[in-house]
Amino acid sequence: MGKRWLAAGWVALLVAVPAGQLMAADYAVPPGFETLMEPQETLVDVYFGDRLVMSTPARYSPDEITFLEPDALIGAMPQVKPEPWLLAVLSTPLDPHGDKVCVSEHQQGCGLIEPKVAGVIFDEQRFRADLFIHPNYLDAPETLAPRYLPEPTESRWGGVQNLSFSHAGSAEGENNTSLFGRSLVGRGAQYGFANWVSTDEQSLSIDELGWQRNYPDHQVTAGLFQPNSDMLTVIDRQPIAGVGVSRSLVRRQDLEEAFATSVEVFLSSRSRIEVYKDGRLYGSQFLESGRRRLDTARLPTGAYTLELRITDANGNTRVEEQFFVKSRRLAPQGEKLWFAQLGQATAFARDQVLPEDRQTALFMTGLRQRFADTWGGGVAMAATGEQALLEVSGDWFSRYTQLFASTFVETEGGGGFTLRGSARLRDWRFQFDSQRVWTDDPAVFDVDSDVEEYQLLPRSVRRDSAELWVPAGRGQLVFSHRRQRLGRASEQTISSAAYLHTFRVGRGQVINLSTSLTRNNGDNQILLGANWLMTRPDWQHQANLGWVQDDAPGTEDGVNAAWASAWNDRDRFDADLTLGAGVNFDPGRQSVLLNSEYGSRHGRGRADVAFNDSDRGGRDTLTSVRYDTSLVIGDGAALGGEQLNDSAVLLKLNGADGALFDVLVNGNPEMVVKGGSSATLTLPAYQVHKVALRDRGTDFVDLDGTPRDVVLYPGNVAMLAWELQRVMVALGRLQDSDGNTLSRARIQGPGFDKLVFTDEDGYFQLELPESSLDSLYVETASGRCNLQTGAAEIKHGVARLGAVVCSVNSE
Predict the structure, then answer these.
(1) Are strands 647-654 and 717-723 parallel, antiparallel or unpaired?
(2) How far is Cα 793 from Cα 811, in angstroms, rounded to an integer?
(3) What is the dihedral of CA 600, 602, 606, 607, to 10 degrees?
(4) Which of 452, 575, 747, 777 is 20 to 30 Å apart from 646, CA to CA?
């Protein structure tokens, strides 16, 4: 320690010498002080990130500093990777960077260096060394959010029953109705589940019925369930009756969501599209002519074929099949995703409640891993008693492109590949999708049991699609091609070239111009169109004018025109209401369109109707209806909720009857509720939701608007209650029983902690709950006097009391 203080004295001497003289003397040392220029050893305080790490021995001189115990120094910093190269650099003499020491508060260019591996700024006066390490040698910072979802807020049993009603009807008598249900009963991290559907053809069909338990890192499922792994992309995705265990990420809070392949249709006129999977209606909607993309958010996860029934305004119906995939790809960094499932293979059956037993045991397993930030891969297999399939896949992402590839082989001689990707450079975009499955298409039957034999590759597939977007002036050229053949069905091809141009004409108005040439299975179609759109706070108007020439049988060429308007209530009601109407004029036919959409705490629905009239004498009325709601059972029961989710919150608002409040979830308004009532709010599971109330301004209400955290798992139902009380603003003039003004008097009351005084003329203004008005008092020299307000008339939250007498208590 003596050397440390001696060195400090020498440093002080050097600082005292003017810089010019020190340089001129070439660091000349006064006689008798030569030993001070030699390397010194002392304890140095090492800081990293402006935090003290440790005091460690070091050897230093004006030209360099060497840490004598670098391994101990690295071990004291858990965020630093203990790599050999870093240890080697910290073991060598380092530049002290004395010119980077900050000696004044606002000094510029000090206190920071950017070394390739490691470096130090050494302050000899304070024996402080600030260490700097390149980010490549540091571990990734910990996320601010907890890694795993906390335990659920509610520990008791709860139940959520989702109901989704869909109907597509026609005045000619064709009607299709489906009622989908998802039932969940849960407690904590475990729950029972059932997915069922009721249709016109079948009163009840159960697709899934089982139990699941979620642990922090994995989950266990038992019963009748659909395989939940996307590592096997081509096998028949039918339910299995058995048990499964998998690495689970549902309780993690640092993951991104997956995406689904798009489903597109080409429409020659405004049409109704019905989406079927396994013969069941999943939804229907009306879409305008042209190439349209369907909303697939309601479709389940998996790889399967969708049946699209397209009915045009003339009543003609065609059916298309499209292969659809919804999956999660790259595994999280540092994670290995795996699964194993064993059970009896089944198949959906339209003539029985439970799926049909395929009399085949099925085993599936797989592993997927991310090898770098931008690419990863996996391997998976499926096996029955007679056949097996192996699939290897990989994903690769870059700044401009993304690519997925897989290849698979089956022991029966089948196999194939999938190649899917996209690329983007500035305003140029290109995407493609190709798949081949080679297998024997004829179905194989067991003669003795008359049951179709289970096949891992049920039929051959040949599918290709590509789309290119090219900027052209202020518009875009779009080229697309699609070819598809499923099994022994005939091949379908469609190719098109289109030009799109958008003009923004101000005040919420847009004009879209388009022209396209399409060849659909050998038939040519030419479309020219103009679309005008105007948006206002309450209204939206649009008009279309076009010309079509179509070689397809049953179509007519000519001019088409359309007008549509929609009105939204914009918070006029305690619900969301949209009403729309329009007319269509196509070659040879005319249509009148009406639609409405309604959402409230009781559910959300939409209804559409089209009155079609053909010049050939045909008339028809097409309808489409959808309604979603939920039944929630917890501490009580309630029906409602605008969205279909696996968990829910029961809201109970006590007091302030009739007042309107917004329910905020994570800061976003989700629904409107009334004071003095209960409501149901369904929310996604495996999340922490911040639920709060916000007064809509219809009344003055004393409200605690602090958000409340709710942790929900499937089947969980949490209860949130608010005690509300109307607040009014009271205006008056205070006087005693003799009519004298009470000036500078403080008005008080039970639970009324605000400082309110009358002015010099006795006038006052105060804000308080209605129930507290008759308990106000004033402390005077002669005692307490009570305010005699009488029956106050309240208008819009304000009570004008006039002259208020303060009567002294008589005891």
Answers:
(1) parallel
(2) 31
(3) -120
(4) 575
Do residues 710 and 751 share a domain?
A: no
Whether 370 maps to a domain, the answer reads no
Asked if 718 and 735 sit in the same domain, the reply is: no
The residue range of the domain holding 132 is: 39-137
In a domain, residue 759? The reply is yes
- For residues 710 and 667, membership in a common domain is answered with yes
For residue 418, being part of any structural domain is answered with no
Q: Do 645 and 734 fall within a single domain?
A: no
Show which of 725, 751, 767 is a domain's final residue.
Answer: 725
Query: How many degrees, rounded to 5, is the angle at CA 349 between CA 348 and CA 354?
Result: 80
CA distances to 510, 780, 800 from 764, rounded to whole Å, are 55, 17, 11
Q: What is the CATH number of the domain that holds 75?
A: 3.10.20
Nearest CA-CA partner of 212 in 201, 226, 199, 198: 226
Please give the span between the terminal C-alpha atoms of the chain, in angstroms, as a whole number.
83
Check residue 752 and report its DSSP letter. E
Each residue of 62-91: b (16+ CB within 10 Å) or e?
A: eeebbbeebeebbeebeebeeeeebeebbe
783 and 801 housed in the same domain: yes
DSSP assigned state of 667: T
Tens digits of per-residue pLDDT, 554-569?
Answer: 777 889 999 999 999 8
The answer to whether the beta carbons of residues 444 and 452 sit under 8 Å apart is yes
What are residue 230's phi and psi, to 5 degrees? Answer: -100, 10
Dist CA 225 CA 12 (whole Å) = 79
Amino acid, single-letter form, for residue 373: D
pLDDT tops 60 at residue 47: yes
Q: Which of 687, 703, 725 is the last residue of a domain?
A: 725
List of residues 6+ apart from 7 with CB closer than 8 A: 36, 40, 42, 124
Token pair 């002015």: residue: 759
Q: What percentage of the chain exceeds 70 in pLDDT? A: 87
Q: Greatest CA span in the chain, whole angstroms?
A: 121
pLDDT in tens, 498-543: 999 988 887 789 999 999 999 988 888 899 999 999 988 889 999 9
Lowest mean pLDDT segment, chosen from 65-74, 374-383, 707-716, 750-759: 750-759
Residue 793 neighbours by CB distance under 10 Å: 9
450 pLDDT band, cuts 50/70/90, is low
Least Cα distance to 795 among 687, 700, 678 occurs for: 700
Q: For the range 488-492, what are the long-range contacts, defined as Cβ-Cβ under 8 Å and sequence gap of 24 or more? A: 488/441, 489/321, 491/462, 492/320, 492/521
Whether residue 700 is found in the same domain as residue 733: no
Calculate the alpha carbon distances from 151 to 124, 345, 676, 730 in Å.
Answer: 52, 35, 31, 46
